[in-house]
TrEMBL record, chains B, E:
InterPro entries to which the protein is assigned, alphabetical: AAA+_ATPase (IPR003593), ABC_transporter-like_ATP-bd (IPR003439), ABC_transporter-like_CS (IPR017871), ABC_transporter_ATP-bind (IPR050166), P-loop_NTPase (IPR027417)
SMART domains in the record: AAA (SM00382)
Molecular function terms, GO-annotated: ATP binding; hydrolase activity
Enzyme Commission code: 3.6.3.-
CDD domains per record: ABC_NrtD_SsuB_transporters
Gene3D superfamilies: P-loop containing nucleotide triphosphate hydrolases
Pfam families found in the cross-reference section: ABC_tran
Protein name: Aliphatic sulfonates ABC transporter, ATP-binding subunit
Domain spans labelled ABC transporter: 3-224
Keywords linked to the UniProt accession: ATP-binding, Hydrolase, Nucleotide-binding, Transport
From TrEMBL, chains C, D:
InterPro entries: MetI-like, MetI-like_sf
SUPFAM superfamilies to which the protein is assigned, alphabetical: MetI-like
Primary localization class, coarse: membrane
Natural source organism: Glutamicibacter arilaitensis
GO biological process terms, semicolon-separated: transmembrane transport
Protein name per UniProt: ABC transporter permease
Membrane topology: Multi-pass membrane protein
Gene Ontology annotations for the cellular component aspect, listed alphabetically: plasma membrane
Family note: Belongs to the binding-protein-dependent transport system permease family.
Domain ABC transmembrane type-1: 79-263
């Protein structure tokens, strides 16, 4: 009985009094970090009298839980948790309103693994079961008919780094800056850059999602959110390399005390592309890939992306 | 009517029949001594009168406010001092708060323990614990007072003194007192009536009334003591035999 | 005034025995009833709730998930894996913790030095051990067992220690008078006397063991390590699959109830009966 | 000839023991010594270890991290936040658990029905509650407290229940004889008699409370929720910053030791002294 | 030499001086009774002899293998049956395994409890528990036997019987027996020497040797009993006064 009631009451109610925005202290969430540290979003929201409450998360599932409960209204997320939630709620939970980052995920392996066929019999890891890198890696292994030969162990980013450092795993499919960290500090090398597996080399890493009800009730606020996102991305794409590295490093440090070295951040920024295109075409592929390797339920991504707020799209 | 015991039987799961259709009528204000061999069921009987144990058959009638009970082991609460142990009984009997402290002192002095008020049970000697338990039983101030070998751990002199005090208390208050003892002379000295229990199963073997005349006549009471001892000894003989066979 | 306090009452036939349902049945009937009541409350709540169905699935929705999980065998095998790990780990923990507790109980200096640390280790969350365990053992069962043991051992040590602390001094005096050697004292007096406290400690130790295991199973949820219940739970969260999460929770509860009813409760009942006591809530005055 | 130091043993005839005043050994250095020994072992191990320093930092490296964390105040404020949450949550848990335990102890049917579930809830990992708590309370302290309470309450209930179970039957008889009402019985006999077991349960409850709190603090690391020790630990793990992880572990241990030494140990010592017992490992025969 | 007590004093933290420079020499094979008011320090003295309590000053000498001790409370282990409680003492005294079961039966029969072998302590009556404790003390079979009011919870007949058996055992084995009692007649009947303790602080007030002649002469022993009672009563008077003042 729930959903219909909620829909019945949902209507445009003008700007929200408050926007609760979730994101991670990750390099792939740089648009959120920059928007926050430069006060971009805050400034825009103030015009409507909307307050901003940023909220840091560790992982996608917790962010999705928070979004579902109304504890946050919008979030920067990897596409996989967003897709999972969209499908399991039958389209009622959220919408993707913009992209934030693409690329910037690689399979980093030990020195002695030189080509894909060497992956047979190895132990690999990804940050999260059913996450973007997890599905990608499993799909890649399946394509190369290695899925039964190599094992894939989901484990958190920090643990992965440790496991790789200790030699307990032979490789990891990870996002930036961890991929760069493994390369810079732990003598790994990139065996597969994920972008090489996608048409035009583009696949989403971070997207901006908004709770469906919030989107219906406060489109003005969402518009501001997307604008700020766009400005942050513009800044990231236009700023001097040095300035960019320092700004990202400081934003990360301010957010959760991260202390990644400049070379790591610099290498990571090379890998990631910041763009507000949500890459709507890729979601069905992502869902299909997941279903092919037996993760999650098959479903349709139709209606997931609401790209009306993206300026570039309008023109 | 003080206490009415009607064809009460008691069976313990592991032990079998301990008390067999025992009946007794105890008048209001009587002073009863219960004699019997070790293990014959005296404590069990008191437990039933106190309502702590349900009879397996038969029934008992006791005053509605229950009975004060002095247990065979002193059963003091280890976290309370001697004084607080007695005070708890007063508190639970709704004794007026203002007079409690005074009453506690009075009761402990009665049992010669005025100096041990602040002592925890583990700091008391065996006899001292028993006397605190006695003070606590008196603190309850019920119409019926059950005492399970109240003086067993006491020396003869202290015991003598407490005998006197118990008699005096009984005379003053008209309580119904039922007390278990192993000491035939003690029974004769204190009680108005003596019930002698048999063992295995427990029945009333003998009932003797003690008049004040008898009590105060050394020769007569010595004769009664001998007589009761003989009865008890005869009863005991039987068990010696059964025990030999059982072992 | 005399009133009647008759037990059993006057009209009852003499010598009648009270009929009691056997304990075993009792022990299972009441919990099952409770569960049924809770399930219906849950279903009603989920109907009445304004929350979306994927956020608050009712028992029916959750049950609907069951065939799928049973069909691919993942639930059964996860429960089997976790139960095996938890039980074997628990046994190891008991075997390690018991001598340590005895040592601490008999070495005053050691106890003063190490005792507070043991208590402190109880409050250390299991995941704190994960980095260290991974460095030592990589992604192996050894890592999982390490985390489990470090969770369970301190609590069992504390349970046995507090059981030993509660032993009445008179038993220690007896043991001395009987001329018991240290070994004999421990074997014949200390352990049996401390047993009730020890079992209470074991129950807590089991809880710690199981919860630590769940935490350990989150380190790594598949691959070379067999999939456990903890991994399944995390998988449910990762996939925003609340019916799966609920199903895992119910499974864990079921395992917990069974362990309690088949293991701890009977032991405790036996111990208490041995000492002439009854658990409150069991018949007998 | 009566002085405290007496003729030595050898003057006793052969085959005989001479019993003399005992001397008490004072050992205040023990805990400090233990910590020092452990620290040096750790430092030596880290020097001797072939592992890279960032994988196995020694105490010196960890200590080096301290000024930085103290400078930005994050460690102190995280400890303060977590400690406040844990203590207040623990107090609430005690206030909720105690009446429930008393109710269960006095309602046989309820205990049979709900008792095993309470034990089972102890084995439910804290993160199992997180999704439900978030849905109900969002990202607020209420969520954190819910997870903490659900972790601590069952264990306190079980502690009090087992304390009540262990009450010698004779105290119950006494209470009946003294004419105590149910309320009076609970207040004057049951609670004080169960106190030692209850405190043992509280210690476990505290451990559960703290560990559940750590789990709850992983949900979110900043924003509306103040940063706690659990978040700091997770941050250390996420950043593969082992010195930070170690520092947080040491901090948690320190908090645990202090709570033990300043709270549980004195209470327990008092309770036992009240009952004429001593903790093993404390002087007195 | 049985037991040597040399200027032993004992101070309890809360209570103060309980035993004051007490000295006594007890020969090997002596049968000693200790009399004294409740709380005068008799149990404390036995505890020191058994090595359970260290004197505050002075020293004691006892045989190296220690002493068998029958406690004032029976102190049975609640998880063991009566038989197992006795057996434990045999086991810890390294009694040959093969003969243990037989010896347990023998000892329990000695105290009239052959039938209660399989009972747990909570299924026994107070007097039965005390008798199991007696059997256990005898099972220890040490040269020195300490008994703290061993017959307090027993009826006169059982007590008589056990008196005889204890005398016989002593005569056969030549044990050194030190027993505390409240019963002056019991002391005269059993002991070879009686020590009377004063209270507050405990000192030896009187020492009396009992010859067999005296023991067997009712008139003489009655006279001694009276004399000892008078001594004890005089001692007690003092405390009554102090207690009134303290209370
Ligand atoms: N809980 C019980 N379970 C089984 N048997 C019991 C229980 N309590 C007592 N008995 C048995 O019942 C009988 C009577 O016990 P009770 O304590 O009433 O004796 P008593 O007359 O008070 O003896 P005593 O003078 O030694 O105190 C004994 O044989 C004892 O073994
Ligand atoms: N642990 C203790 N702490 C403080 N005082 C104690 C302790 N144990 C005994 N006492 C005190 O020492 C005195 C002697 O006690 P003890 O038990 O030796 O007496 P007793 O002669 O055996 O008496 P009873 O005949 O009543 O058993 C008493 O006044 C008692 O209060
Ligand atoms: Mg009795
Ligand atoms: Mg004594």
């Amino acid at each position: 009985p729930g959903p219909s009631q909620v829909q019945a009451h949902a209507a445009d109610r003008g700007p929200a009094t408050e926007l609760k925005l979730g994101y991670f202290a990750n390099l792939t969430h740089a648009p959120a970090l920059i928007s926050d540290s430069k006060g971009l979003l805050e400034g825009k929201l103030e015009q409507d009298g909307t307050g901003l409450e940023p909220q840091l998360f560790n992982a996608g599932p917790a962010a999705i839980e928070a979004l579902n409960s109304g504890a946050i209204d919008a979030a920067y997320l990897g596409p996989s948790p967003a897709l999972n939630s969209y499908i399991s709620s039958k389209g009622n939970s959220l919408r993707i309103v913009a992209g934030a980052a693409s690329g910037g995920a690689s399979l980093v392996v030990k020195k002695d693994i030189a080509e894909p066929s060497d992956l047979a019999g190895t132990e690999l890891a990804t940050p999260q079961f059913g996450g973007t890198q997890d599905v990608a890696l499993r799909h890649y292994l399946a394509e190369n008919e290695l899925l039964d030969d190599a094992t894939v162990t989901p484990s958190s980013n920090g643990t992965l780094t440790q496991l790789f450092g200790r030699g307990a795993i032979d490789g990891a499919g990870v996002p930036e800056p961890y991929a760069s960290l493994l390369v810079e500090n732990y003598e790994g090398h990139r065996l597969v850059d994920e972008s090489s597996l996608w048409p035009e080399g583009k696949f989403p890493t971070t997207v901006l999602v908004v709770a469906k009800d919030f989107l219906i009730e406060h489109p003005e606020t969402v518009e501001k959110l997307v604008e700020a996102n766009s400005e942050a991305i513009d800044w990231l794409n236009s700023a001097e390399q040095e300035e960019k590295i320092v700004a990202v490093q400081e934003a990360l440090n301010a957010a959760n005390g991260s202390s990644f070295a400049q070379p790591v951040i610099s290498a990571a920024l090379e890998e990631v592309t910041f763009a507000e295109d949500p890459l709507a075409d890729t979601y069905q592929t992502l869902i299909n890939h997941a279903a092919q390797v037996g993760i999650g339920e098959p479903g349709s991504a139709d209606g997931l992306v609401d790209s009306r707020f993206i300026a570039s799209q309008e023109h | 009517m003080g206490v009415l015991i009607n064809e009460v039987s008691l069976t313990y799961p592991g032990t079998g029949l301990v008390i067999d259709q025992l009946s007794a009528e105890i008048e209001d204000g009587e002073f009863i001594a219960v004699l019997g061999a070790s293990g014959c069921g005296k404590s069990s009987l008191l437990n039933m009168i106190a309502g702590l144990l349900a009879p397996s058959s038969g029934w008992l009638e006791v005053p509605q406010d229950g009975a004060a009970f002095m247990f065979q082991d002193s059963n003091l609460l280890p976290w309370l001092t001697a004084g607080k142990n007695v005070e708890l009984a007063l508190k639970l009997a709704d004794y007026p708060v203002a007079q409690r402290a005074g009453r506690v002192t009075e009761l402990l002095q009665l049992v010669q323990l005025g100096h041990a008020m602040e002592k925890k049970p583990h700091e008391l000697s065996g006899g001292m614990r028993q006397r605190v338990a006695l003070a606590r039983a008196l603190a309850q101030d019920r119409q019926v007072l059950l005492m399970d070998e109240p003086f067993a751990a006491l020396d003869a002199i202290t015991r003598d003194m407490l005998h006197e005090q118990l008699r005096a208390l009984w005379a003053q208050t008209g309580k119904t007192i039922i007390f278990v003892t192993h000491n035939v002379r003690e029974a004769i000295r204190l009680a108005g009536r003596i019930l002698v229990l048999s063992s295995h199963p427990g029945r009333i073997l003998e009932t003797r009334c003690i008049t004040d005349d008898l009590r105060n006549d050394p020769a007569q009471s010595a004769a009664l003591a001998n007589e009761l001892t003989t009865i008890l000894r005869k009863e005991q003989r039987k068990h010696e035999l059964t025990d030999r066979n059982a072992g | 005034m005399s009133s009647l306090i008759e037990t059993p009452d006057r009209t009852a036939a003499p010598g009648r025995t009270r009929l009691r349902p056997s304990r075993k049945v009792d022990a299972f009937v009441a919990p099952i009833l409770t569960v049924l009541v809770l399930l219906s409350l849950w279903q009603i709540a989920s109907w009445a709730s304004p929350l979306r169905e994927d956020l608050f699935p009712g028992p029916v929705a959750v049950a609907g998930k069951l065939p799928e999980l049973l069909a691919d065998g993942s639930l059964v095998s996860a429960v089997g894996t976790s139960l095996f790990r938890a039980l074997s780990g628990f046994v190891i923990a008991v075997l390690i913790a018991t001598p340590i507790a005895l040592l601490l109980a008999h070495q005053p200096l050691l106890r003063q030095g190490v005792g507070p640390l043991v208590s402190a280790m109880q409050v250390l969350p299991s995941i704190a051990w994960v980095p260290a365990a991974i460095i030592l053992f990589g992604l192996s069962d050894a890592t999982i067992y390490t985390v489990l043991l470090l969770g369970a051992i301190p609590s069992i040590i504390n349970g046995l220690l507090s059981g030993i602390d509660m032993i009445p001094t008179q038993y220690k005096a007896l043991s001395k008078v009987l001329g018991a050697s240290k070994r004999e004292h421990i074997l014949h007096i200390e352990l049996p006397a401390a047993l009730p406290g020890y079992v209470a400690g074991l129950r807590q130790g089991w809880a710690f063991a199981w919860r630590s295991l769940m935490a350990a199973e989150l380190i790594a949820v598949g691959g070379s390590l067999a999939l456990g219940v903890g991994s399944l739970l995390q998988r449910g969260r990762d996939l925003a699959d609340l019916p799966l999460v609920m199903l895992v929770i119910l499974t864990i509860l079921l395992v917990g109830v069974l362990i309690e009813l088949l293991f701890f409760a009977p032991i405790e009942r036996k111990l208490m009966a041995d000492r002439g006591m009854t658990r409150t809530g069991e018949n007998n005055g």
